Amino acid sequence: MTTVADEVQARERQYLLQTYRRQPVTFVRGEGVRLFDADGRDYLDLLSGIGVCSLGYGHPRLTGAIAEQAQTLLHTSNLFYHPLQGQLAERLTSLSGLSRAWFCNSGTEANEACLKFARRYWFTRGEKRTRIVALEESFHGRTIGALSMTSDAHYREPFEPLLADVTWVSNSDPAALLAAVTPDTAIVIVEPIQGEGGVRPLTAAFAAAVNEAAQRTGALVIADEVQSGSGRTGAPFYSATIGLRPHLMALGKALGGGVPVGAALIGDEVARTIAYGDHGTTYGGNLLACRAALTVLDELVAGGVLAHVGRMAIHIEGRLRALAATHRFITEVRGAGVMWGLELDRDAAAIVPLGLERRVIVNRTADTVIRLLPPFVITEAEFDEAVGRLDAALTAMGAQG
Ligand SMILES: Cc1ncc(COP(=O)(O)O)c(C=O)c1O
User: pLDDT band at residue 1, thresholds of 50, 70 and 90?
Assistant: First the structure.
């Protein structure tokens, strides 16, 4: 008998450009932290659409706001004013301490925007600086500029030549960073917690080295907070937690709660060098996107979700350390808030299907890391239930050797 899932998968295999190696599961509905497949099975989701669905699925305030906005006005373009873009910019600038916002639709576009604004800054100052310092194990996106600053050669090589002049520095060596940033460095770009690279938080000492290098040379610092920002660590942005002082910040993922929203936040000294027409987008910052992001921010701040993430971090860390004590092939537990990685002494790929069999969704990244990015609203009881399933999947993985 052909099932709905069979049909969906067969159609994709025939008509879709095959750039994604999907897991053999077809989700059709979500509720809270649970996803339901086409056969009605429910899964506990510790991934939230790769860090996107911050308020979980079917959140009544978010879905209500989106529905109401869809009925009122979806999109007008950036040729005209609408009431929401300024409100969202005001909220994000006050949360970040940067002075202006520019909206787009994804994380990679936010990084491209930061890159262009930084280039424009150096052009305006009449200095031909183009050198970029980026970190080993970084990931900034798949478009040409963002890809140029992404460290994994496997992603980059088929698309070379990319932007020239990128220097890679270890993410745990402040002295190497200080040595690499010179008076011809235009940009230093860092993820405050590297996500795709294996959930690696930068230390306060590393952030201090970035600040010092920038101050000494004038280089601009871009904080790529696409994965670590918008509340995922219990703070609005992890930069502040480690004392990093960026001139530009890239946002995406959790900000829209599932509606595509990206943003570049820009400090005053860069913002003053940007002129009309320097950058643009048709969709960026439309009413639907802004309404979704405003609702997410309302929930984070006034709705107490940020504080909830802070409390959950302690609970999650305790549970994960207990897992590591049980399964000796877990060699390290890293993370903050609701962003965690379990480093294994082996390839972590097997955990994904073993988890799905037990109806828990987790992700493998950087080959040997199990990554957890649950919805911000997950409760202790839900997390414990999910960890019970993950524990069983880890036992099965251990048994495979
Ligand atoms: C830190 C970081 N920057 C940029 C991106 C790219 O974002 P998007 O996939 O929305 O283009 C990602 C995506 O995983 C990311 O984790």
Answer: confident
